[in-house]
Design goal:
Helices cover 64% and strands 4% of the residues. It has 95 residues and is mainly alpha-helical. The chain starts with 11 loop residues before the first strand and ends with a helix. The chain has 2 domains: 38 residues, no CATH class; 56 residues, no CATH class. The chain has a two-stranded antiparallel sheet.
């Protein structure tokens, strides 16, 4: 993980870069403390990407926001939405 992240800008956990697991543990703790539903960081990213797509943002424009090196990675996050939109558009055409 340290090879991908600039340690000067990465959150720290006792002097070490904060891992996804430790971030999610803290996030769950804080959500519980304030009484809101917990969503993992992965679920938050997935939801954010889906919301952007639903708002009409093109996958190619979502890609850099998520920090993905390939469009295929972004399409993984929005794949279900693409399928739903395609099905909905096809139903409108055939109606």
């Amino acid at each position: 993980m340290t090879g991908r992240y600039d340690t000067k800008r990465t959150a720290k956990n006792e002097g070490r870069p904060l891992t996804t697991d430790s971030f999610n543990r803290r996030l769950k703790k804080y959500c519980t403390e304030i009484g809101i539903p917990y969503l993992s960081s992965h679920k938050i990213r997935f939801t954010g990407a889906s919301m952007l797509y639903d708002a009409g943002v093109k996958p190619i424009d979502i890609q850099p926001l998520l920090g993905h090196s390939t469009l295929t990675m972004t399409q993984h996050y929005i794949g279900q939405r693409v399928a739903e939109r395609d099905t909905s558009q096809m139903a409108k055409i055939l109606a």
